[in-house]
Amino acid sequence: MTYSIVSYSLLVSAALALVAATPIHPRAAASWPDPEPCTGNNSAIHDPSLIKKGDTWYRFSTNDNILIANAPSLNGPWTYQQQMLPQGSIIKVADDQQLWVSKLAPDVHLIDSTYHVYYAVSTSGSQASDIGVATSPSLEAGSTWTDHGSLGLPKSSDYNLIDPNLFRDGDTSHFIFGSFWRDIFQTTLSADDPTKWSGAAPANVVYNSTIRLGADATTVEEGGFQFSTTVAGKTWYYLFFSSGLCCQAQDDLAPAGEEYKVMVGRAESPTGPFVDQAGKSCLSGNGGSLVLGSHGFVYAPGGQGVLVDDGGRAVIYYHYVDTRIGYEYKDFQFGFNYLDFSSGWPVLTT
Fold first, then answer.
1. CATH classification of the domain holding 310
2. 103 confidence band (pLDDT: 50, 70, 90)
3. 222 is catalytic
4. Count of alpha carbons within 13 Å of 44, Cβ hemisphere only?
């Protein structure tokens, strides 16, 4: 996201700086405000990614060769615009590409004067995956996108090449990806060409070895998203990630507490090490502080991103199940809330 790479300063008083954030146990129950009001085309939304140009917001999301919608405000009304890659990706990870392969988790950025969307191509439940990028000089309806194909990231039995996120800090293009296996990894893109991998070996930054309830498998951490901000004169780097199981049928839901939720760790460097509010490592200590979980009619929120709006407020956006509507894949909704970082940790607010 263009806005995800811009650090903004929250000027807090000395008294406020002395107020300690109440530690949140990584998977403790909590209460949160409902999603902000949002109208228009907000169904069948998975892994949204947002960017603004002029007076218009653009939303990219998983499925149907990457869907693009637009709106005059985050509240909508959102209107379907077009597919990003109507002919599909040039990346091939399976023989029957159109039938079995999904185009996933777009991540949009403005780099110089060109829009870049990083995306994943994957067969569900396997490591037959890859991450590519498409570019366009424009976001407007009817814009055409050039598919550059794979970034060239190396394959490994340790990770799955999905859920990309670019975080630009100075001259360095940090690149997050990963899901299941050993969860989330970080590398960099080429300093000269943001459509190519730099060659830097991917490093594991988030891993959870906790055995899931009702399963002989570890907790799933995925969908990493980096963000930075300055609090009381100190810059912090945050790594948001989705934890748990997404997209379960209503008659086969994950055990309570194992459903999708948004977690966070922070560090003094964009490369980590990331720790939670209790000081537990997100890599070796099963760390992660709970930012947003199921509550009221909101079930299994995740696939998140963070940006700063025109008013200078931090916004977290995500997909979720509205239990009043349904649990089917097509029923997933787009939602967003505001975040308060004044304690040094992100807290949902109205």
1. 2.115.10.20
2. confident
3. yes
4. 9
